[in-house]
Design a protein that fits this description.
about 230 residues, Rossmann fold, 2 domains, eight-stranded mixed β-sheet, four-stranded antiparallel β-sheet, about 20% helix
């Protein structure tokens, strides 16, 4: 999930358990990867801190198998068959056989055929908990292209990272604006304390993330921390 965030224009920061226990007051989103050994040494203080983080307005996005989040928010799930999934009327493929039907929260994506929830979201106080029934980070780095399940026949299904509508990206955007321009070929970005600079080496324009303007080819722009643009 770390690499995926970087390519989407975010600047993720790894945190230690002590920082979570301290409240994460400067964070809007907490991503929790899979950890199937957590149950061996549960930490009720950590689980309480996760609930407090969401309750005060934070967004928790967790992978299937992120046991700290599953214990903290009483997330229920059951193993199911990887038949591909639907999100925003688009079909997705996964490079894994270990997937789950999520039973806690409102369904955001569905497994093909069974219509069981492939991902769910629920409100906790002022915040949200977003639960995947698979491991989104693994899909991003998978080396093998997934195969279309036989029962899907000629239905159009796309790998997780190639879908026009991506659930992970949408959940992030709902919670926090990107820190910088998403990674693009021939586009350079640099962030500073008082703003960021974007250089477009392409001959074609690009749309600036979080801005109303576009950046023309072979040009650059300075965007201060208040969002004011200075083109060059």
């Amino acid at each position: 999930m770390y690499r995926f965030c970087c390519d989407l224009g975010y600047a993720p920061e790894p945190v230690e358990k002590e920082q979570v226990l301290a409240g994460l007051k400067d964070f809007d989103v907490l991503l929790i990867p899979a950890d199937d050994c957590y149950h061996a040494e549960r930490d009720e203080r950590l689980e309480s801190a996760l609930r407090l983080f969401a309750g005060r307005g934070g967004t928790v996005i967790h992978s299937a198998g992120a046991e700290a989040a599953e214990f903290a928010f009483d997330i229920r799930k059951q193993r199911t068959e990887n038949t591909g999934y639907h999100y925003c009327e688009e079909g997705g493929l996964l490079s894994t056989e270990t997937v789950y039907a999520m039973q806690t929260g409102e369904a955001a994506a569905y497994w093909c055929g069974s219509n069981l929830a492939a991902a769910t979201m629920m409100n906790i106080g002022q915040g949200k908990v977003c639960s995947f029934g698979f491991m989104p980070g693994y899909q991003y780095i998978a080396k093998k292209a997934p195969h279309v399940p036989p029962q899907q026949r000629n239905n159009a299904l796309y790998p997780f990272t190639h879908m026009e509508h991506n659930l992970f990206r949408d959940w992030l955007l709902q919670a926090s604006a990107p820190d910088q321009q998403p990674a693009l070929k021939d586009v350079e970005c640099a962030s500073f304390e008082n703003g960021r600079i974007i250089v477009n080496h392409r001959s074609t324009p690009i749309r600036l993330s979080g801005q109303a303007q576009v950046l023309a080819g072979h040009s650059c722009v300075w965007i201060d921390r208040h969002g004011k643009e200075i083109f060059a």
